[in-house]
Write a structure and sequence with these properties.
Blueprint (H helix, E strand, L loop, with lengths): L1 E7 L5 H14 L4 E7 L9 H15 L5 E11 L2 H13 L4 E6 L7 H6 L2 E4 L7 H19 L9
Parallel strand pairs: 1-2, 1-4, 3-4, 3-5
Helix pairs in contact: 1-5, 3-5
Length: about 160
Amino acid sequence: MRVAVVAVGRPKGEHISALIREYETRACRYFRFSAIEVPASAGSGADERSVRAREAEAIRKRIPADLELWALTRGGRQLDSRKLAETLGDFATYSRAGVAFLIGGAFGLDDDLIRDCSSRFSLSSLTLPHELARLVLAEQIYRAGTILRGEPYHKGA
């Protein structure tokens, strides 16, 4: 089963970049995983709506075909680690191609892009910088793989 993370921008700090790479590499042990970065839309004086629209266009061009789209939004559905693992396991069980998690840039995701997604997913009701969201998501995808295989990484209930 394929799992993709499509994120606006590149991680800026060396330490967070290394952590993201570590967990994304670990996720590859369990899923056909890919991390896709699209450039953040820049422009002095650009309004938030036009920035989100340009980033959405870039995201749409890079989304792998046939994957279900999940928008990461603060107001989305929250799942615990076991439920996320179960949900990803169901993708494989029911022969679904997989899922692409979409992470917006500084202004979030475009409303039209969110409407095109089959699910809205939240890592937390807190607002997270997109780099931190990507790290947490990568770790949770890795954790889901270990849960599905019954490996000892996950210590939670």
